[in-house]
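I'm curious: can you give me some protein's one-letter sequence along with its backbone structure tokens because I've never seen that pairing?
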Amino acid sequence: MAFLSRCVSRKLVATPGGWLLSQSRMASHSAAVGAHGHGQVATHGGHDSHGHGHVPAYRAAIGNREVVGYGWDGEPSYGDSVVWPYPAVRFQEPSAAFQSVIQKEKADWRNLSIDDKKKLYRYNYCETFSEMLAPTGVWKNITAIVIFWMTLGLWAFITLKKVYGPLPETFDDEHRLAQLKRMIDLRVGAVDGLASKWDYEKGRWKE
């Protein structure tokens, strides 16, 4: 249930492609690192509903999540990736449930308990490397699609056999050889076609 709730929460952050992108490109590709390694990203924005203060445009997409770095491509976005496991924003928004561990994070990490470290990880990230690398079961969908098309092709083949019946007698070997002999006698393709490969003096194919 805990993992299911994380996945539901993740949908608030990630798009169907796995990324939540801000509404505008960053105005600058640099991030100023704060005292605790938390970067502040500058971009174009507007004012709040009361007309007070500057509100970055990407805030509409990421909410109150803290921007902590450059990320994948300079966008204030979140995404789980084993290739680049450093999203630009934290996975969770600050809340009362995380306040205690957030304060502990600012102190000596040796004082953190195992539960604190796990909670802090879930505050920053949605999935662990084990969860990202776990089998997804996509092969089942691929196998089902392949079997479906094979079955459809077999069904079409059987149906056509029953609808059209047996092939005409001109398709048997005897009639096909007779047709080939007639084409040779008529010298079809005498220049560079079929007849050009037949030796009329020896009565056989040229070597």
Summary: Helices lie at 2-10, 59-62, 96-105, 114-124, 129-133, 138-164, 173-185.
